[in-house]
Specification:
Length: 459
């Protein structure tokens, strides 16, 4: 049966107030898909303000058996943020910074604040929170924790898992608990904090987080945009910068299709070279880096002349997905990780797959992490086109697994690739790990209400 029924809707209204319960088709439209257009229509959306309200909603779901998910901005690219005929808890009214501690170097926040707003609050204190998914302008702390998100600065600073100290969580049984401590060191017990990071909303609802922060660095850097006529040369630069012990603050790449889409759809004006690297290098290391760019056959080396141009280079990378998404009615974004010294080889493989199937697969990614985003374009209403895209997707995932890589570095699994999570774990000696993961899900969520049927459970 569709819908929660009048009695349950009244109960939700009793918990969060009439204006914070949405059930009408029009009102819940925005919640029926994520940003890669995975679709499932929820029965209701609730917008709580307190942890107590979250707990009451979760208890109602547990009692009635309706599935439930927490949702931030819905910027997930894997179907993790949608649910069929269930309850969505929109956390975005819970968006307060509760404490900035500049001695113990942490910030205590509610889950619904966006990463960009969090950094705006930290800036006057001279601190920042480094993980910066390209979606930072909308994505929430709760979503980024649950997805274990990475971003452009992660080459130097790591991903979300490196920055979470402690959490308050409402478990699927409705109990509110605290995991971890807001301390620089703590190893009391199993690490349940990091079990939550990357759990894709399947184990509980994050209601508060204590996140590490660090001072805004005052080391001077230069931002380069460097273009190449082929991927071999770009791959060589990546290897040589690393073996020269240069650790860039930002180290990204884009292919010709990405730059073309940015120029055409977002009115940018960058050179449309086969391969483009974006690199932030500390000033003392600039001469070595420039020598490497030249020796590896760079076509053009541009140093950002001021902050405005540096920001324009950054936006090219951050907005690439938005530009590419306009190129076709269907889009499948991949999130492969390969050993960094095999990045060039993998990029060539992806281009070969695109040629073999006669389709477009624009590629961008995080060069310093070996994290590649092949973006497979297809036509949604065309069955044949969907099948071709899927065949390309499967080849790309299998190649990554065979190279000792991973099918996801930051976007997660959701409903997009449980099959390949399983293939990867089996291929890499992780069969027993998968069994344990499934048991962990069952221990946390006996009623199977929290984002059920996805991720580990579906693998
Ligand atoms: C243009 C664009 C660029 C992107 N770039 C990157 C990138 O560079 N790096 C990257 O890693 N990802 C990227 N993403 C993917 C996505 O933005 C991230 O995964 C993001 O962190 C999700 O945050 P959100 O608030 O939108 O979460 P949602 O999409 O709303 O939810 C994602 C998952 O988190 C769960 N969740 C949300 N809030 C909570 C909570 N309080 N408690 C428990 N579970 C919760 C949901 O149930 C769901 O399973 C990008 C997406 C887009 C559209």
């Amino acid at each position: 049966m569709r819908g929660l029924g009048e009695e349950n809707v009244s109960r939700l209204i009793g918990i969060v107030g009439r204006e914070n319960v949405l059930t009408q088709t029009k009102a819940i439209e925005d919640y029926a898909h994520d940003m890669a257009d995975y679709e499932s229509v929820p029965a209701a959306v609730v917008r709580p303000l307190t942890e107590g309200q979250v707990a009451e909603v979760v208890r109602l779901a547990a009692m009635t058996g309706f599935p439930l998910i927490a949702r931030g901005a819905g910027s997930s690219l894997t179907g993790a943020a949608v649910i069929e005929n269930g309850i969505i808890i929109d956390t975005r009214r819970m968006d307060r910074v509760l404490k900035v501690d500049t001695v113990n170097w942490y910030v205590h926040v509610q889950p619904g604040i966006s990463l960009e707003d969090l950094n705006k609050e930290l800036k006057p204190h001279g601190f920042f929170f480094p993980p910066d998914p390209a979606s930072s302008y909308i994505c929430t702390v709760g979503g980024a924790i649950s997805e274990g998100s990475g971003g452009l600065r992660c080459v130097r600073y790591g991903t979300m898992k490196d920055w979470v100290l402690a959490l308050r969580v409402v478990l699927p049984n409705g109990k509110a608990v605290k995991f971890g401590e807001a301390l620089a060191k703590n190893r009391a017990g199993y690490d349940l904090v990091h079990l939550m990071v990357g759990s894709e909303g399947t184990l509980g609802v994050v209601t508060e987080a204590w996140l590490k922060i660090i001072p805004i660095p005052d080391v001077k850097t230069k931002r380069f945009m460097v273009t190449f006529g082929d991927w071999e040369s770009a791959g060589e630069v990546i290897s040589r910068l690393r073996s020269s012990r240069i650790l860039p603050n930002l180290f990204e790449f884009l292919d010709k299709d990405n730059i073309h889409a940015l120029n055409e759809k977002l009115e940018m004006s960058f050179d449309e070279a086969e391969a483009t690297l974006l690199v932030d290098v500390e000033e003392t290391q600039v001469p070595v880096a420039e020598e490497i760019f030249q020796e590896c056959g760079a076509v053009k080396i541009i140093v950002a002349r001021d902050e405005e141009q540096a920001e324009a280079f950054y936006q090219a990378r951050a907005m690439a997905y938005v530009a590419i998404k306009t190129l076709a009615t269907g889009i499948q974004v991949e999130d492969i990780v390969v050993p960094i010294d095999r990045l060039g080889e993998f990029l060539r493989f992806v281009k070969g797959v695109a040629a073999k199937y006669g389709i477009k697969i624009p590629v961008n990614g995080h060069a310093g992490d070996g994290n590649v985003h092949p973006t497979i374009l297809y036509e949604r209403e065309d069955q044949k086109s969907r099948e071709t895209a899927n065949a390309a997707f499967e080849e790309i995932c299998r190649q990554a697994i065979s190279m000792g890589g991973s099918v996801t570095g930051e976007h997660g699994v959701g409903m997009q690739k449980p099959k390949f999570l399983k293939e990867q774990l089996i291929a890499h000696d992780g069969e027993e790990a998968l069994r344990l993961m499934k048991e962990i899900k069952a221990v946390f969520d006996r009623e199977r209400i929290m984002n059920p049927g996805k991720y580990v459970e579906a693998a």
